[in-house]
Amino acid sequence: MALKDDILALSNLEEFSSMAMEVFNYQAESCEVYKKYIHVIGRTQPTNIFEIPFLPIEFFKKFDIVSKDIPENSTYFLSSGTNNSVRSKHWVLDMEYYLSSCETSYRKFIGNPEEQVILALLPNYLEQGNSGLVRMVEHLINLTNDGLSGFMLSELDEVFSRYEQALQTNKKVVIFGVSYSLMDLADKGFPLMESIIIETGGMKGRREELPKKLLHDYILNGTSCKILYSEYGMTELFSQAYAKENLLFITPPWMKIITTDPSDPFSIVEGRRGVINVIDLANIDSCSFIQTQDIGINTPVGFSIEGRMQQSDIRGCNQLVE
Questions:
Q1: Looking at the chain, which terminus has fewer C-beta neighbours within 10 angstroms, N or C?
Q2: Which CATH number characterizes residue 179's domain?
Q3: Are residues 124 and 27 part of one domain?
Q4: How many CB atoms are closer than 10 A to CB 15?
């Protein structure tokens, strides 16, 4: 589909808005779940991107969200879960496109993997399987073409050993880690001042949840790292946003955040707390318009995450399930 290449080549808001309306018209007809949802809520003809309805993210736990038939060789990503929780499923009809989207964002925000050694501390994602994050990082590790790059479960001493070896080769060291593993790494007190650390994923019930600022301070103080990113991504999206020390996430050109009033999913709010809605045009084969359960503040220079919604039941959801 030529549209896929055009999406990753977007460069400005005018192009994005035009493309988003084109994708909406396509998915409003081709994605059966989304088509039914927008008819149930009576919003089938938006005139601009701010009128496009967002599909509640929990639909990925109940339905196959696809905009065309699922080929036999397709795979899917599953969200991380705890205990017996229902996990979201996102069908991946074009793995090459998913990896191209991830790689393009990574190069834009973090750097060229060919110049790096990438170390990954993502134990729970590896253990649970079918992880989009693991598949993305695996792809980036392969691009480094360096035997020092790789996944580690809890081998924190090995992380430091490989870090020191990588410095001898004049390569930059990038450490991907789920939050609790990075806190464990910080507790070790290894001097990792030349590394770039990318925090993602959360505590997964392993350690106490911390506000993002406190978490970053903990990691920075324990590792002496000077560059720390947060990655914002999820199973239901193909794209990622990245934040540095100001904790404001920046999206790639084909991804946009729109915040709405928690009590009214059709009322746009700016500059104050609202529900995070994501337009991810890379989700061309599923649904590009996702209402998350995150609360945040959207600004002209990026968005922050302030917490989670207390009530996940979204207007229209129960009607469609029935």
A1: C
A2: 3.40.50
A3: no
A4: 15
